[in-house]
Amino acid sequence: MHLQGKSALVTGATSGIGQATAILLAREGARVALCGRRSERLQETARLIVAAGGTVLPLTMDVRGEGDCNEAVGKAVAEFGGLDVLVNNAGVMLLGSILNADTEDWRRMVDTNIMGLMYCTHAALPHMIAARSGHVVNISSTAGRTVRAGAGVYNLTKWGVGAFSEALRQEVHSHNVRVTIIEPGIVATELRDHITNENAKAAIETMARSITQLTSEDVARAIVYAVTQPTHVNVNEILLRPTQQAM
Length: 247
Hints:
The protein has 247 residues and is α/β, with parallel strands linked by helices. It contains seven helices and seven strands, in the order E-H-E-H-E-H-E-H-E-H-E-H-H-E.
């Protein structure tokens, strides 16, 4: 149990990558704060962790609210006595062309994928710096490396995550705080279910069905690999794609 005695906070922990990561972190011995908007789903995940002998703190919150992020981090620190790992996983992928777009989709992506990640990081950093130890893991995507027509604003948010992560790493390395960015390709999760543009949704679903996709557990194992390295090792970036995914 490589994370025995450590504490972690995972956003977007109600399903997919966030849920799988929380479960695997707990299996490695970490006490885990589960954060997400769907209370019932948080409780389901919490029950799975407790049944396996883990320690968990479910926190219903929305990363789009700075106050929610501050409160969640504060509760985790109060409960666990500190915060060793922050996994900024909450995100939405609302694909669609820029022309004639529903700009509410843009706001949801920017507020969740960028601002939510920044709010949680901003709340967690003082605790990590005070302890001279900590690890921030930001979930990006291959969309943060490769631009496609029909994904322009999603690309924007994920490229932003990459830029923020590298700037953050340069700022906090002297405090012994590590930063890792995880960039998965196509993962079999419910992320695609929320796309409002029917043509964009059909296109990504067709692509997904044509290959063997990554699982949430595949990505969770990459995250756990990064955070269980010796403290003098910072795995800055992990890019993982399905073998059959070209871009």
